[in-house]
TrEMBL record:
<dbReference type="InterPro" id="IPR050902">
    <property type="entry name" value="ABC_Transporter_SBP"/>
</dbReference>
<protein>
    <recommendedName>
        <fullName>ABC transporter substrate-binding protein</fullName>
    </recommendedName>
</protein>
Amino acid sequence: MITFACMQRPLLSLHSILEALSLDAACLSLLEQTPEYQYFIHSDTPEAIYGAIRTIGGILNAQPQADQLVEDLEERINIISHKLKFIAEENKPKVAFFQDVFPLTAAENGYLANLIRIAGGIYQTRMIPHESSSDVLIIFNEKPISQLLTELPQVLSTWSQIPAVANNQIYIVHHPGYLRQPSALIADEAEILAEIFYPKYFVFGRDEDVWMKFEWQ
């Protein structure tokens, strides 16, 4: 049985934006008191996140830094989009996310869907293992890697019919700072997924600190 988690819309990480703008975390309380707060806290698309960063920059008298940050994020994401623009929809990998394997917990939210789209994948929701056609499985949680590596084979042994399992396309995102909520790290996260989906097109080196491929057979 699969539990579906993270169904609530994740909130924008204001801490990540303040850090990216080199502003003190104490500014968070000020942002929470502004009329714009309810607007930008629910941002989960690139365009909405860019708008939120600019709004926050304006509120905190950091407009030049905010504009530069948005320009940098847009440029990095546009590089990914440009490289993938000729890949046909039928050739894009179908991707499923799991927050845990014991109990089996699927992770679904709009932000993940947007990241997968940017990185050239097709987001699979409400995945039923014995009916799945997923090409890539991604697992992320807070468990020690040693525990997860022990649990995963027990689950995957019953999923041999899934393309991702049959083709050893299983990945663990072990860094707790990524893929949890919308943030100023959106370009990093898009790059992480792009190099997982298309290793021949992208090499960002994030397999050294953020993710690992799980070879189970």
